[in-house]
Amino acid sequence: MPILKTLKEDLATARAHDPAARSDLEVFLAYSGLHAIWTYRLTHKLWVAGWRLPARLISQLTRFFTGIEIHPGATIGRRFFIDHGMGVVIGETAIVGDDVMLYHGVTLGGKAPRNTPPGTKRHPTLDDGVTVGAGAKILGDIVVGAWSAVGANAVVTKSAPAHSLVVGVPATVKPLSSSTADAARGIHDWHWMI
Fold first, then answer.
1. What's the domain of life for this entry (predicted)?
2. How far apart are the first and last CA of the chain?
């Protein structure tokens, strides 16, 4: 996808999720979650091309400025949004689908036996449309199914099927109601019409 089109899509995604966003210019200049995602796209290209040290250095510099750590080896889909940003960590082998939203303090962390070879899948996969509440920790090579919601501060170490509500410590899985799904995603398209 061309860069300009991707940029417009990212701005539209942020404005759809955040009723505090008043203009594209404000979002472009002030949303650290988007700054982290844009830098991730650069570092991921460097990582895939074999420029791994520069990718890691740029990634760490971005972490310093945004408070968001996205490993260049992670795989992230389109229309990804990080609300508030600070404290988000996304590990090397994490896979994030399209239309995923994270709140601040989320960790997509690794879990693997000692002496696991580098590059082994050890971080979670979030399928399309997953929303993860503030402070949640999702650990290990597990899958959170499409259009599921993970509650704030949940600690998730087991996979969940699509359309699940995952809450608690340790997290348990329940069916996700449509009203809870709408509340979790925080889509606020109404202000586009003003």
1. Bacteria
2. 29
Chain center to CA of 110: 15
Q: Is 193 inside any structural domain? A: no
Whole-angstrom distance, CA of residue 133 vs CA of residue 129: 13
Indicate whether 52 belongs to any domain: yes
Q: Which sign, positive or negative, has the C-alpha torsion 156, 161, 162, 168?
A: negative
> Which CATH number does the domain housing residue 19 bear?
2.160.10.10
Residue 73 lies inside a defined structural domain of this protein:
yes
Report the C-alpha gap between 177 and 101 in whole angstroms: 18
The b-or-e profile of 167-177 (16+ CB within 10 A means b, else e) is beeebebeebe
Q: Which amino acid is at 108?
A: L
* Residue type for position 54: P
pTM confidence score: 0.90
Backbone angles phi and psi of 179, in degrees to 5: -70, -40
pLDDT in tens, 120-171: 999 999 999 999 999 999 999 999 999 999 999 999 999 999 999 999 999 9
Structure tokens at 18: 């955040």
Give the count of domains, the chain: 1
